[in-house]
Write a structure and sequence with these properties.
Protein name (chain B): AFG2 AAA ATPase homolog B
Strand content of chain A: under 5%
Largest sheet of chain B: 12 strands, mixed
Number of helices of chain B: 28
Helix content of chain A: over 70%
Shape of chain A: rod-shaped
Mean pLDDT of chain A: 84
CATH topology of the largest domain in chain B: Rossmann fold
GO molecular function, one term (chain B): ATP hydrolysis activity
Pfam families (chain B): AAA (PF00004), AAA_lid_3 (PF17862)
Structural class of chain B: alpha/beta
CATH class of the largest domain in chain B: Alpha Beta
GO biological process, one term (chain B): retrograde protein transport, ER to cytosol
Strand content of chain B: 15-25%
Shape of chain B: elongated
Helix content of chain B: 25-40%
Largest interface: A-B, 28 and 26 residues
Oligomer: heterodimer
Distance between the termini of chain A: 11 Å
Number of helices of chain A: 8
Keywords (chain B): ATP-binding, Nucleotide-binding
Low-confidence stretches of chain A: 1-13
């Protein structure tokens, strides 16, 4: 399918050219977004079991803090409680370390998307003088308007930024001495998922599928 | 251009800082995609990025409130139409640095999160946002504990708005909690407060001292006061005072309302109370804080023997107040109007250290309150506030505020009728005075409506009138003369004399002419089948009368009301107990502390001019602090001698039966409204009515008129002399010489 069928021929050739190049950049960004999204999802899936075991460790620590080892037959083992505590903490530390490395993956995904978006916006800024509002709001059945596409791109970027910051805050403010916090960590991690916003990105990508395939 | 209708923002745009508007308007304003745009709405403005609407419709506006003036944080006022002129492009350059205050949700987050992490998060969140100096960036859409970022200053460049990029340096000057931040924002003008300067100053001192000199206090080993109990009748402004002072010293305020604390499950109330203290403690970390417990008596009543749930709540409060360490820099302020029903354990140093008593306002305080209230209303300069303060005896702050409102309403009604006058005049206040009564007398058992009787309506008795005026009217009218001569207002006046000689009417006239509050009580009000109830009612009556002093308290037929101890009646009867209450109230050791009014005199600045009315008001306060008891009886011998000594009923006035002159005067007054024939000789009638009392004479005139009607068959035009004479022949005087002489003996 060619663009010429729906974009009216205009006298101003630079405008046409700018529009074309911007569309090209947008197409590339959306394709990149599509792939980065898959990476994001896979990293999150890796995180889930880690968070679950972290919550599990929290429960174990709670149980340990409740039991009085001196009242049990295990009292023959010296310093059992302290040893167990240290072991649990070590396990938690290890988990956190692995989670942090996952977080850096997430950060790279976010940064990649941000960079794409800011590059496209910069491109628009440069060409803005030759693109009037009629041109950026012009749309047809297969190509959404530039304004809409830029808005979707920004929305997607905002979503990933928010997701990343929320998860980062959760992990960074986690304290191992606060057991109730530690126990509920998996629940809070799951709450952060916001299917609605993600669905919006999916919708936008669906609407763009013709556009993205057109010049592959 | 057509006006713009403001719609609520699309969910997908939330947090994007976009402002959706029609493309035609965008090109008219010269905006590109994402150009910064300043939208001014009533009450504030908002910085956002312009974006065309998805449906390209004109005439609508959707603004995401990401960066707004602090007043717009709660949201936009609902239906709103904007003029396109209220949108203006705001050039935004890339910022080099920005200074911000971070507002976080929980104090917990503030405590445990490292500044580095907060800085990192805030930087990430702010990237790409247009900011304006003095505005607040709303970060609620990130759903973290960081709620807002207030932009204090934006870099060295002079522009007031800019965009934050990854290269912008973000400097966090302070981290506050949302609660504290909201408290700072909420300094909207409160109702004016007058006449409580001293209490206000002492409260301020308690709040500010630990903040200003923390090291001095610790080195001296002084622990700051932790609790202040405000005591006073309803409506004197206790709650307002606390809010005002808190706003003045910019402290945080945690208010506890009774029903919020009390829960249905056992232990729930205590838990909420602990949470409230925790809240105050965390709020105190970011500045001074006041924990305000309003209506303390309902929450923490006196503990009873049974295991009532209140007992546990009181115990919880006690332990919480004891558990406040020196590090907790918040003040607990309680307010109550029934301090006696509080648990006594609360009222000791270490818990509620100071008790501040706010009594019903004195005339000077009333004047201060009135001037504070009238500040914002257009009051005619002819209105004399001092005079108004004098007339509003017994009014508390809430009453005065109602009075001003009512007066303003009267003025408004009048101007609506078309007089065009806007100012509130004295006559409006006088109208309002008829409607708004002092609230301390509402529901009081002695409150009576009486139709004013002028002195002229009482014939004769000139001596008695003068004496009554001396003791009732003069202290009100000429307080400075009383103070100059070191005179004191009499505590009480006893009127005695044969029945029907206008004792009650005299009191009515005195009450009407003195223009002070008037309470009257009879046996029916006081007596009750319960033991102790009558005494309580009498004491309560005196308390109310003192609250609205100067006040006249009229005890009619005092002999039957309190009786005498010397009579052979039962020594422990109700009458004897009432008598002892009366004696105590009239000349007891002193007042209860709760009833204290006003404060010490404020020193006047040297050379400050004081107007005459000011001085007069001052004298009023000195002279008219007391309640004056006026008693009437026709059996003076039955009154206990302890009541009759100076200091209680000082002035004992005999109201004699009318003599010839007086009878003539009475007849003149009685026949004033009657069509009396010109041949009627009132002098002769007066001479023939020896031993007639005033009531008899009034009755005589009535009989004569009835007789005239009887004889002339309902068509009588005037009353003849013969009618009077025949009436006299039918009637007997109600007094006897023996009776009169019996009155004369005890007075000598």
């Amino acid at each position: 399918m060619s663009n010429g069928t729906c974009v009216k021929t205009r006298e101003r050739v630079p405008a046409e050219g700018a529009q074309m190049s911007l569309q090209g950049a947008l197409r590339r960004s959306f394709v990149a977004l599509h792939s980065q999204r898959a990476v994001w999802r896979s990293v999150l899936e890796e995180c889930d079991p880690l968070m679950e075991s972290l919550g599990n460790l929290g429960e174990q620590m709670r149980a340990l803090s409740r039991v009085r080892v001196s009242d049990t037959p295990l009292r023959v083992f010296p310093e059992l409680q302290e040893r167990l505590q240290v072991q649990l903490l070590q396990a938690a530390d290890l988990l956190l370390q692995r989670l942090r490395s996952r977080m850096s993956h997430l950060q790279s995904v976010r940064d990649a998307i941000s960079n794409q978006v800011s590059a496209v916006l910069q491109l628009y800024e440069d060409a803005a003088d030759s693109l009037d509002l009629a041109a950026v709001t012009q749309r047809c059945s297969v190509i959404p308007s530039l304004a809409d596409m830029l808005a979707w791109l920004q929305d997607a970027e905002r979503f990933y930024k928010q997701q990343f910051l929320q998860r980062k805050t959760l992990l960074q403010t986690l304290r191992l001495d606060d057991l109730s916090q530690l126990e509920s960590v998996f629940k809070r991690w799951k709450i952060l998922e916001s299917p609605d916003s993600e669905q919006e990105i999916t919708d936008a990508l669906c609407r763009l599928s013709f556009f993205m395939e057109s010049h592959r | 251009m057509q006006p713009l209708r403001l719609l609520s923002v699309e969910p997908s745009d939330r947090g994007s800082q976009r402002c959706r508007l029609g493309p035609a308007l965008m090109s008219a304003l010269g905006l590109r995609l994402g150009s910064p745009l300043l939208v001014s709405v009533p009450g504030g403005s908002c910085l956002c990025a312009a974006w065309p609407r998805a449906d390209l419709a004109e005439g609508f506006l959707q603004v995401d409130l990401k960066c707004v003036t602090p007043s717009l944080i709660p949201g936009l006022p609902a239906p709103l139409t904007l003029d396109p002129g209220q949108l203006s492009p705001a050039p935004c350059s890339k910022l080099r640095g920005v200074k911000v205050t971070v507002v976080v949700q929980s104090p917990d987050f503030k405590q445990h999160t490292s500044p580095g992490l907060v800085h990192e998060l805030v930087r990430d969140m702010l990237r790409g946002v247009y900011v304006h100096k003095g505005y607040v960036v709303n970060l609620e859409d990130f759903k973290t504990d960081i709620r807002y970022v207030a932009i204090d200053d934006i870099g060295p460049d002079s522009a007031s708005a800019g965009v934050i990029t990854s290269k912008t340096g973000v400097e966090i000057t302070e981290i506050q909690t949302v609660q504290h931040y909201r408290g700072l924002l909420q300094d909207q003008p409160t109702a004016p407060l007058g006449g409580l300067e001293e209490v206000r100053a002492s409260l301020r001192e308690i709040l500010q001292l630990p903040l200003l000199y923390p090291h001095t206090l610790t080195s001296l080993g002084v622990s700051c006061p932790r609790g202040v109990l405000l005591v006073g009748p309803p409506g004197v402004g206790k709650t307002l005072l606390v809010r005002k002072v808190v706003a003045e010293v910019e402290a945080g305020l945690v208010v506890v309302r009774g029903p919020e604390v009390v829960g249905s499950r056992p232990g729930e109330s205590e838990e909420t109370l602990r949470a409230v203290f925790q809240q105050a403690r965390s709020a105190a970390e970011s500045g001074a804080c006041v924990l305000f417990l309003d209506e303390l008596d309902s929450l923490f009543p006196r503990r009873s023997g049974s295991s009532a749930p209140e007992n546990r709540l009181v115990a919880q409060l006690l332990t919480l107040m004891d558990g406040m360490s020196r590090g907790d820099r918040f003040l607990v302020v309680g307010a109550t109007n029934r301090p006696d029903s509080l648990d006594p354990a609360l009222r000791r140093p270490g818990r509620f250290d100071r008790e501040v008593i706010i009594g019903a306002p004195t005339p000077l305080q009333r004047r201060a309150i009135l001037s504070a209230l009238c500040e914002r209303t257009p009051v005619c300069p002819a209105v004399n506030v001092a005079e108004l303060a004098r007339m509003t005896a017994g009014y508390v702050g809430a009453d005065l505020s109602a009075l001003c409102r009512e007066a303003a309403m009267h003025a408004l009604r009048e101007s609506a009728k078309g007089s065009g006058q806007q100012a509130v005049e004295m006559k409006h206040f006088q109208e309002a005075l008829k409607l708004v009564g002092p609230s301390c007398l509402r529901g009081s058992l002695g409150r009576t409506e009486l139709c004013p009787v002028p002195w002229e309506h009482i014939g004769g008795l000139e001596d008695v009138k003068t004496k009554l005026r001396q003791s009732i009217e003069w202290p009100m009218r000429y307080p400075e003369a009383f103070v100059r001569l070191g005179l004191r207002r009499p505590r009480g006046v006893l009127l005695y004399g044969p029945p029907g000689c206008a004792k009650t009417t005299l009191v009515k006239a005195a009450a009407a002419s003195s223009r002070c509050a008037f309470l009257s009580v009879s046996g029916a009000d006081l007596y009750s089948p319960y033991v102790g109830d009558s005494e309580k009612a009498l004491a309560q009556l005196f308390r109310e009368a003192r609250a609205c002093a100067p006040c006249l308290l009229f005890l009619d037929e005092i002999d039957s009301l309190v009786g005498s101890r010397s009579n052979d009646g039962a020594p422990n009867g109700v009458q004897a107990r009432l008598l002892s209450v009366l004696l105590n109230e009239m000349d007891g050791v002193g007042l209860k502390t709760v009833e204290r009014r006003g404060g010490e005199k404020v020193l006047q600045a040297e050379g400050a001019e004081r107007s005459r009315t000011d001085v007069e008001l001052d004298f009023q306060e000195v002279c008219n602090k007391d309640v004056m008891v006026v008693a009437a009886t026709n059996r003076p011998s039955c009154i206990d001698s302890a009541l009759l000594r100076p200091g209680r009923l000082d002035h004992i006035i005999y109201v004699p039966p009318p003599d010839l002159q007086a009878r003539l005067a009475i007849l003149k007054v009685c026949t004033k409204s009657m069509p009396v024939d010109s041949h009627v000789c009132l002098e002769e009638l007066a001479a023939k009515t020896e031993l007639y009392s005033g009531a008899d004479l009034a009755n005589l005139c009535k009989e004569a008129a009835l007789l005239a009607l009887l004889e002339e068959n309902m068509e009588a035009e005037s009353i003849q002399h013969s009618h009077f004479l025949r009436s006299i022949s039918k009637m007997n005087p109600s007094l006897t010489t023996q009776q009169i002489s019996s009155y004369l003996i005890p007075s000598q």
